[in-house]
Amino acid sequence: MPLPARPVTMWAERCDGRNGLTGAPFRHKIVAMTSRISHTTVDAIDAYAQSVWWSEVLDFIDDPDDPNEPGHELCPIMSRDRSQVLLFITVPDGQKKLKNRLHFDLRPVDGTRDEEVERLLALGASQVGDFRRPDGRGWITLTDREGNEFCVLPPDQATSNPIS
Fold it and tell me: Does pTM top 0.85 for this prediction?
């Protein structure tokens, strides 16, 4: 059950410290709180190169007031309407060894899944898995230039199923 949007007063009996109740009420306010995702951060061997590559993939842009440059350790890119932000952070080579536990699932905006995969392969992605189904659903798993996995789904088909 979600918490109310405004503070509420709850009543309870006060404990006397000896496992007994005094019967004295006290007020306790609970305020409903939530979080939202500010941006997605991706560890990278070369944050700048990754920001350039993913900008091409997603048609994202640099912050015009602080453009990314070679050698920058923090390289944010954003959607043109600034509603989505990816932040690439350079980490030492030795810290970038494990399989990603989080990855992007992309849906083509223009064209088919297969056309988008061809475009991404031409940009330097590598294909590592093919999970297409005969009915047209499913996905293809690719990696970016640093080996980070991501998937390409079919174009949006007005479904609530994230993997169709």
Answer: no
